[in-house]
Amino acid sequence: MMSLAEYKKKRNFGNTPEPVTAQTKKKGKHIFVIQRHSATRLHYDFRLEMEGVLKSWAVPKGPSLYPKDKRLAMMVEDHPVDYANFQGIIPEGNYGAGIVEIWDKGTYELSPENDGDGLHAIQKGALKFILHGNKLQGRFALIKMKKGAPNAWMLIKEKDAFASDMPYNSEDDTDASSPINQQLNASGAKKVKAISPQKKPAKTASPKRIEAPALKVESKKKAL
């Protein structure tokens, strides 16, 4: 298993419901998860199980099914495999404070054209894989950018039967009743009502974090 030292260093586990370490996973297909996260900014966390951890990237605009999109993906610290089941509220004052919800989840396999195994492909700066999720399916690639921050990558949908021929917005493929959307709708209604009671609340794609409504924290431990 790879080191989770950076993950642990950033968190106070006495004040966050996030999992401390990963339990031993049963053998089988590798999993992936995409978590929608209303931290300082609304974004999506893309995670691939690899060598006993979740290799992780923060995707500000969310994943896309449109091959012409090249979505910025900032590589972050490895997360424990148990994190794939985590959803709930990270309390204020903690790293990544805000609501976390699972947007998509499934299994994945590495594409045969990778240069070596998954870790070697990441080191080379080009990882190709096939997702089997509920929302995302088919061939994708993570390509490290040659310029900019050293942890900057691009998440790209490759052309296949699952690709969209029109621009894709992950927000349009999100349940309107999700906890984060309830938070955003409640906040929007308050702001608009204070200014003009006659107008309907406007939707905001990427608002700053606001106070979350009461929400039961879940950290599911079901078998992956």
- Strands of the widest sheet, in order across it, are 1-2-3-4-9-8-7-6
- Helices, by number, come to 3
Pairing-aware structural class of the strands and helices?
A: mainly beta
Poorly predicted ranges (pLDDT <50, ≥5 residues)? 189-214, 216-224
Which of globular, elongated, flat, extended, rod-shaped describes the shape? globular
> What are the secondary-structure elements, in order, as H or E?
HEEEEEEHEEEHE
Helix content: 10-25%
How would you sum up this structure, described in words?
- The chain is 13% helix and 34% strand.
- The chain is mainly beta and 224 residues long.
- The C terminus is likely disordered.
Break the fold down into its secondary structure elements and pairings.
Layout: H1 5-9, E1 30-38, E2 42-50, E3 53-59, E4 71-80, E5 86-90, E6 98-110, H2 118-124, E7 126-132, E8 137-144, E9 152-157, H3 179-195, E10 218-219
Antiparallel strand pairs: 1-2, 1-6, 2-3, 3-4, 4-9, 5-6, 5-10, 6-7, 7-8, 8-9
